[in-house]
Amino acid sequence: MPASALLSRPLAPATAQERAAVTALISAPEAPVSGAPAYAPEATPLALLVVLLSPKEPKEPRER
């Protein structure tokens, strides 16, 4: 169904202010910086130490 069939009278052209408002609402600006973690080579020894010192998974008890 054409849009003209839904309207009782024709629409007036949008003003520059109306177009700017609609454009501001529709266009979402992109984030300047990603939220992904950055690679930090100085953190590698610390991460390795955390992994090595973390508690081990409990072992299943042996049956006698």
What does this protein structure show overall?
- Helix content is 39%, strand content 0%.
- It contains three helices and no strands.
- The relative contact order is 0.06.
Helix content: 25-40%
Overall mean pLDDT stands at 79
- Please trace the helix and strand order, writing H or E for each element: HHH
How would you classify the quaternary structure? single chain
Can you tell me the overall shape? elongated
Map the helices and strands.
Layout: H1 3-6, H2 16-26, H3 44-53
Quickly list its features:
mainly alpha; 3 helices
Short overview:
The protein has 64 residues and is an all-alpha fold. It has three helices and no strands. Helix content is 39%, strand content 0%.
